[in-house]
Write a structure and sequence with these properties.
There is one protein chain. The protein starts with a strand and ends with a strand. 27% of the residues lie in helices and 38% in strands. The longest helix is centred in the last third of the chain and has 10 residues. The chain has a single domain, classed as Archaeosine Trna-guanine Transglycosylase, Chain: A, domain 4, CATH 2.30.130. Strands 1, 2, 3, 4, 5, 6 and 7 form a seven-stranded mixed beta sheet that branches. It has 141 residues and is α+β, with helices and mostly antiparallel strands.
Length: 141
């Protein structure tokens, strides 16, 4: 199963630099997800790449910070603001990050596109449409 995740451009840059090896979420998917399509939020507003999910770790925010702060791509203040009031969070390990040479305009595939607050599950039809539009890619890790 594939999902579309909204991620801020500054964190995508940290992924590319290798500083962010884990994507943090407040909730985990209910379905078995292995591949993520990355939607870069404003000002980019494009689908810019993909990554494969490695390990999925659920734990308290304190424990997640202690385990992964060196690979979070975030400052401590932003991390704990994100998890404010949350008892358990999720860390998704990034594997095989690929950025597209030409980002995909989501409105080409989703005419009534609204960026996901957290994520969208993607069906095979949408994935095939995005793969047709995709114009090459860069491999980072």
């Amino acid at each position: 199963m594939n999902v579309l995740l909204s991620i801020r451009p500054k964190y995508i840059e940290e992924m590319v630099k290798g500083n962010k090896r884990y994507e943090f979420r407040k909730v985990i998917f209910k379905k078995d997800v292995d591949k993520v399509w990355i939607y870069a939020t404003s000002p980019t507003k494009k689908i810019v790449g993909t990554f494969v999910i490695g390990d999925i770790i659920k734990d308290t925010p304190d424990n997640l910070w202690n385990k992964f702060n060196g690979h979070s791509g975030m400052c401590e203040q932003d991390f704990f603001e994100y998890y404010s009031g949350i008892k358990e969070g999720v860390a998704l390990e990034l594997k095989y990050l690929k950025l597209f040479k030409v980002p995909i305009d989501p409105k080409v595939i989703f005419p009534d596109f609204t960026p996901p607050q957290s994520f969208y599950y993607l069906d095979d039809t949408l994935i095939k449409a995005m793969e047709k539009i995709e114009d090459g890619e860069h491999n980072y890790f």
